[in-house]
Amino acid sequence: xxxxxxxxxxxxxxxxxxxxxxxxxxxxxxxxxxxxxxxxxxxxxxxxxxxxxxxxxxxxxxxxxxxxxxxxxxxxxxxxxxxxxxxxxxxxxxxxxxxxxxxxxxxxxxxxxxxxxxxxxxxxxxxxxxxxxxxxxxxxxxxxxxxxxxxxxxxxxxxxxxxxxxxxxxxxxxxxxxxxxxxxxxxxxxxxxxxxxxxxxxxxxxxxxxxxxxxxxxxxxxxxxxxxxxxxxxxxxxxxxxxxxxxxxxxxxxxxxxxxxxxxxxxxxxxxxxxxxxxxxxxxxxxxxxxxxxxxxxxxxxxxxxxxxxxxxxxxxxxxxxxxxxxxxxxxxxxxxxxxxxxxxxxxxxxxxxxxxxxxxxxxxxxxxxxxxxxxxxxxxxxxxxxxxxxxxxxxxxxxxxxxxxxxxxxxxxxxxxxxxx
Length: 422
Fold this sequence. Notes:
Number of domains: 3
Oligomer: single chain
Order of helices and strands: HEEEEEHHHHEHEEHEEHEE
Distance between the termini: 18 Å
Helix content: 40-55%
Radius of gyration: 45 Å
Largest sheet: 5 strands, antiparallel
Strand content: 15-25%
Structural class: alpha+beta
């Protein structure tokens, strides 16, 4: 999820809650104000009616008008409550309308000069109030929706414009490669924080490029300087072994030294490969077929390890294609195959299954289940096989981490590795 969408989403929830509370509070406040104004009108009308009744005892004690009606009747002193006025909503059947309509009622008591108590009930139609409430409710809903949409739109626009320098930086970083020249970061901004970030990124990229160049040159020099004396030493040992004066014990020592030097050569090549992978020197990618790479690699390893008499079953349930560096794809499959052959027993078995999104390889072995926590550590030799450098699975792990490929190991009498391609 993009930062701008994440920010708007987090902003939307409290905004919607606040707007909903505001709309509800505004609606309730308007209703209260309408009732308050209606009550004030009823109280004013009450004052007029009581004043007229007290000055004119012959005044009619009821008035059945359409909009406002009142009724006056005498009550007992024990029933009278001169302190409070009672307001409430009710309904009344209107003959003209031929239906019940809502009304607002005021009920109050008063006393005349001759110590008689009366109850006054005033009813006023609230037809206009109901229409007004409906109009207000619809208006608030419409205003609420329009306001929320406008706020989100403006927020999206403002955040999009404000975050533009950030997206420029991210785009530049996405194209940045240590092994390739890249244009300087051009990201003009008036925001001080983005300006500081621009300078920090440029400084960091310059330092990284410089260190990468130095490291790459160092590794190449070390690799070259090691390969030459190792090759010379191996050749001299081979010549020495051909000397007829060498005893059997000396030949055994020469063979032992020869194996150690070959192991050093393999380790040196593996470490150099690991360094190149981690430094992302295999940047070029293409759509490669794992099926074709597996088929070629199987033919090569069958010839190399022909003496082990290993049965290999290759099942293709689908065509597995992925976008990655072709050389790394070959190294990935070959390391898995080599691992299966080296750690297999004589007359063992290897099963390879390919589907549309997975590559599974399992092999028989004399070794028990491996420690999953240390499985991909460098120089981790859980089998004790002298032909292993302890770097094969580390190389596999480095490759799959680049292309977001998942690997799973399990043991069911056979060692099984499952690669899942996204």
